[in-house]
Amino acid sequence: MVGGSARLSESVQEIRLANGFTALVVPRHQAPFFSAVIYVDAGGVDEELGESGIAHLLEHMAFKGTPWIGTRDWASERKLLTEIEQTAEEIVVENTKATPDQATLARLRARLTQLQKEAAQFVVPNEYDQIITRAGGQEINATTSKDWTNYFMTLPSNRLELWAMMESERLTYPAWREFYKERDVVAEERRMRTEDSPAGRLYEEFIVGAFKAHPYGTPVIGWMNDLENLTVRRTANFYHRYYRPDNMVAVLVGDLDPTQVKPILEKYFSSLPRGPQATRRLPLEPPQNSFRKIEVPFDAQPQVLIGWHKPTFPDRDAYVFEVLQYLLTANGRSARLFERLVKKDGLCESVECFTAPGDKYPNLFCVWMTPRAPHTAQEVQSVLWEELERLKRDPVTTEELEKTRNQIDASFLRELESNLGFARRLGAYYLLTRDAHALDKFRDAMKSVTAEEIQGVAQRYFTRDNTTVAEIVPKSRLSATPKVEEARDRASVPLTTSTEPSSSAK
Length: 506
Fold this sequence. Notes:
Blueprint: E1 13-16, E2 22-27, E3 33-40, H1 54-61, H2 74-95, H3 102-120, H4 127-134, E4 138-144, E5 149-156, H5 160-172, H6 179-195, H7 198-210, H8 224-228, H9 232-242, E6 248-254, H10 258-269, E7 292-297, E8 304-310, H11 316-330, H12 336-344, E9 348-356, E10 363-371, H13 377-393, H14 398-417, H15 419-433, H16 438-448, H17 451-461, E11 467-473, H18 482-492
Parallel strand pairs: 2-6, 7-11
Antiparallel strand pairs: 1-2, 3-5, 3-6, 4-5, 8-10, 8-11, 9-10
C-alpha cells in the first residue's frame, strides 16, 4: 500500500547498464508478484512524413515473436518473408506512381496473398503470449501514444528471469512475421475506431485543427494512405533508430530484491546494441492567434470538443491545469462543470476535462461535452464560458481548493496502489523528467497550487483567440453559409483582454 505521508521515491532504486539501458526497481513485498513495464522513448511524434502509424504498428509486431518464438521452421519461413517483402515493395512503388497500372497491382497483390498463405503454415499463433500466460503472467499488453510506446505485464516474482529473457529477445530480434496481415488489422482498427466512429472522427478532426506545425496533429494510428504503404523496410528503419537500450527505461515494481535484479538485467539486456543516437528536430507549434471552428459531418448525437493550447511539465502552469481538471470535472458530482451542466441545468449528458494529445511537448487542455436533447452545442458552450469567466473573476475558495487537493492526492495514491499502476506512472514521469523522484515532486506541486495561480491561468489561457472548437453536426444541418456560423461563434465566445499564452493497444 502507498502511505499518505510516505515519500514515494524512497524505495526507488535506479540501475543503469553500460549500454545506457536504465531500470527503476521498487520493492513491494505484499504479494509474490511483480509488474514490469518497458518504455521506449519513441511514439507518433517521431515518425517521418509519410510513415504515420508506424510506431503503433511496430508495437503490434512486438507480439509476433522472434526467430525462436512463434515459428515452426524459421529457415523456411524466413525465405518466404524475404519474398513477401520484395513483393510488397513492388506494390508500394507501383501504387505511388502518378498513374498506377491496375493490372500490375492486381497481379502483385495476388502474389502477396499467396506468399502470405504459404508463410502462415510456419507460424505458431500467439506463442509469445502463451509462454507468459503458462508461467502465470497476466495483464500482458502494450500501448502507443504520441510520446512513447510501453510494453507491460504482471508475473509471479520467481519468473523475473523469464521476463528478462522474453523481453530482451523480442526487443533485439524482431521477426517481422505476418507484417502485412497486421498492417491490415491496424487499417481496420482505424476504420472502426476513427472513420466509422463519431467520437473518433470528432477527436481526430479536433487535434488536426488545433496543431498546424507540430506532429501532435497527426493521429497515432496513422493516416490510411500512409498505413497502406508502410513496409517492413520502413518499419525496421524506425525500429533501428529508436529501439536502442539508451532510449528505453524498465520499471519493475513488486516482490523483488534489487540486488538480484541487477545481475539478471546485465545477463539479458547488456548485449542490446546501443547504435547511433537518433536526433529529434520537431517543428515548434506557433502561438494560436485566432478562434478555430471545425464542423464534423456525422449523423449522430451532437458532441462538442473544445481546447486551449498550454505548456507542459515542468512549467508551473501545467500543474495548475492538473488542478483545474479536478476542479471542473474530475471531482465527481461536486465538480463545477458537472454540477452546472449535468445536475443543475440538465444541459449535458456528460462533461469531461483532460489533457491531450501528449505530455512531452506543449499540448491542449480540453473539455468534451455531450448535450442532452433538445439542448444544443451552442447552449452548452455558452454555459461553459460562463463558468470559465467565473474562474477568471472569482478566486476559488479555500474550502473548495483544499477539497480538490485532497481529491487529487487520494486519486493519485489509489492509482499507485497496484504494482502496474505504480510502474506505468513512474515510467512516464521518468521519461518526462529523467528524475527517479518525479512522483514526489509531482505530488508536492499539486498540493502547492494556489487560488491566485488558478485565476491567473484562467485569465491567460481561456481566451477567444486561443480556442479551438470541434462539433459533430448532422449532415442535414451543415451550414450553407459559413459567414453566418462565424457570426454565431463570435457571439457565443466572450472576448477577453487576457494575454496570449505560449504554445493506446495491442
